[in-house]
């Protein structure tokens, strides 16, 4: 299932969200059909920032983003 986040009254859905216990960080995976477009990277970066602001704790490392096209 997608993970829902609210940012300034708008709702966004991350395709896949995991937590890596060895690396102590969240992993955001964004799935796209077709060839890469620059806006895909921008959207992934936005999701990474949202996870860092809303879920990441003080002891967690920075969130990792993976884009699969």
Keywords:
69 residues; alpha+beta; 3-stranded mixed beta sheet; two-stranded antiparallel sheet; 1 helix; 5 strands; 39% strand
What does this structure look like?
The chain is of the alpha+beta class and 69 residues long. The chain has one helix and five strands; from the N terminus they run ββββαβ. The strands form two sheets. It has a three-stranded mixed beta sheet, with helices on one face. 12% of the residues are buried. The model has no long low-confidence stretch (mean pLDDT 93).
Task: Lay out the secondary structure.
Blueprint: E1 3-7, E2 10-14, E3 16-20, E4 25-31, H1 38-54, E5 64-68
Parallel strand pairs: 4-5
Antiparallel strand pairs: 1-2, 3-4
Cα gyration radius (Å): 12 Å
Instruction: Please report the number of helical segments.
Output: 1
What is the succession of H and E elements? EEEEHE
Shape designation: globular
Outline of the structure:
The chain is of the alpha+beta class and about 70 residues long. It contains 1 helix and 5 strands. It has one helix at about 40-55, and strands at about 5, 10-15, 15-20, 25-30, 65-69.
């Amino acid at each position: 299932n997608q993970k829902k986040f609210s940012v300034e009254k708008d709702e966004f859905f991350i395709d896949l969200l995991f937590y890596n216990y060895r690396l102590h960080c969240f992993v955001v995976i964004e799935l796209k059909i077709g060839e890469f477009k620059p806006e895909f990277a921008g959207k992934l970066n936005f999701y990474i920032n949202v996870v860092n602001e809303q879920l990441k704790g003080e002891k967690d490392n920075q969130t990792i983003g993976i884009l699969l096209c």
